[in-house]
Specification:
Shape: globular
Number of domains: 1
CATH architecture: Alpha-Beta Barrel
Strand order of the largest sheet: 1-2-3-4-5-6-7-8
Oligomer: single chain
Number of strands: 8
Largest sheet: 8 strands, parallel, barrel
Radius of gyration: 19 Å
Helix content: 40-55%
Length: 307
Amino acid sequence: MGRGMGSTDLESALASGRPVITAEITPPLGADPRRALAAAEALRGRVQAFNVTDGSRAVMRMSSLALCKLLLDRGLEPVLQLSCRDRNRIGLQAELLGAQALGLRNLLCLTGDPVKAGNQPAARPVFDLESVRLLQQVRALNAGLDPLGAVLPDGPTALFAGAAADPQCRSWSGLKSRTRRKAEAGARFLQTQMVMDVEALRRFCGEIADPLALPVLAGVFLLKSAKNAIFINRVVPGAQIPQALIDRLAAAPDPKLEGIRIAAEQLRLYSTIAAGVHLMAVKAEESLVQVLELADRGSAVAADVRT
C-alpha cells in the first residue's frame, strides 16, 4: 500500500469490479506477534487486505494499530479496526491521526462489543462516540478540519473508511436506516457479520447497499464443528447458523474439513452477489488457505462445466 494520498490497494480493488477477498487477523493475547504475522504471510497474494480486530469480544489483546503497522512493514495491506468502546473522542482522534502518520489508510469504524461480553466485566466502557459519529469524524479529518472546525495545520488525512453491517438483522427498516446513516457519514464500503442466509445477503445488496453505491464484503465464518456452531448461536449476538448446517457438520466424518467445504461454497457463492468476501476463522486462521484452495478448485470445475 502506498504512503501517498492516492487510493489504497483495497480501494482500488473494490473499484475494479473484480471479486475482493479480505481476511480477519486477531492480534495476540500477549506481546508476541509472530503467530498472527505467520497467519497473514500464509495468505500473501491470496487476499487483498488483512482486517485486524480491535479488542473483539471485549478481551485484552495487542492493539490493532501495532499489528497493522507490523503487517504494513512486511508489505501486507492492513485494515485498521477502530472501536469506540475503549476510547473517548480525543483518544479516537489521536488514533486516526496516528494511523495516517504510519501509512495505515484503510479503516473499519465500529461501535464495539459491550464490556459484559468479555472477561473483564468491571472495565469501564466509554462509547463517547459510536460508529456513525466516528465516520463523521473521519470525514472531517479527510476534509482537513479539526474537531472544532479549524483547518488542520498539516493538511487533510486520506483515510479510506468502512463500516459494519448485519444483513440478517431482524429489523429490516432499522438496518436500512442505519446503513444509510453510515453512508451519509462517509462510509466507503461495508463489511458484514457472518452471513448464513444467502437470500438475506442478496436482498441486502440489492435493496440497501447497491442503491447507496456501497461495495459489500460478505462475512464468511469458518465453522469447526456442530458444537462450535451451537456455541456461536448461543453467545454471539445476531448469529443465526441454520440447523441444516449444524446437522451437516454433526454428520460429517471430519467436521473440520466439512467446515472448510462450507466456507469455500459460501466464498464462491457470495462473490457472485457482493463485491467480495471477508474471511473469519477464529483460532484457525491456518485453515483459510485450504478454504481458498478449495474455492479455487470449485470455480475451475464450474468453468469447465460451462465450457
